[in-house]
Amino acid sequence: MATSEEERRRDLVLLRRVRDRIDREHAQPLDVESLARGVHWSAGHLSREFRRAYGESPYSYLMTRRIERAMTLLRRGDLSVTEVCFAVGYGSLGTFSTRFTELVGMPPSTYRERAAAGDGAGIPPCVAQQVTRPVRNGEAPRVDPRLG
Q1: Closest Cα to residue 130, out of 143, 120, 118, 117?
Q2: How far is Cα 49 from Cα 54, in angstroms, rounded to an integer?
Q3: What is the rounded distance in angstroms from the CA atom of residue 35 to the CA atom of residue 38?
Q4: How far is residue 104 from each of residues 66, 92, 97, measured CA to CA in Å?
């Protein structure tokens, strides 16, 4: 008979598989139901356990990963905002722009312009990713594009 500690370890292994799948396939159409089927859990159970382990829902984690990737692509500067939107898995430019603004504090076009103007020039990409990590739960302060 498995102890509760063994069960918890098995659950954490499955949760890491889900998180790794989101990290790998963030640009693909993913939903909580398909993620849950992949580990033979119900969507509700996956959502509860994922939130308990990582502090947010699988859907929120997916959206944040997409925005993180979008930030990287926008800093690169060789794609338009629309191209970035579709490259990271969004099907709607409006939804992408709204979510980006909620998490980053400015619209993607402003973020791209600032990156092109040299904000953060000389910062290694690995450091830039940590420093510019989007804020979850809409906590990013609004940035007036006329400032700064």
Answers
A1: 120
A2: 8
A3: 5
A4: 12, 18, 10
Token pair of 139, please?
Answer: 């906590």
Task: pLDDT tens for the chain, 148 residues: list them.
Answer: 557 999 999 999 999 999 999 999 999 999 999 999 999 999 999 999 999 999 999 999 999 999 999 999 999 989 999 999 999 999 999 999 999 999 999 999 999 999 888 765 555 555 555 555 565 555 555 545 444 4
d(CA 11, CA 47): 13
146 and 110 Cβ atoms separated by less than 8 Å: no
Per the confidence metrics, is the pTM higher than 0.85?
no
Nearest alpha carbon to residue 129 among 120, 139, 118:
120
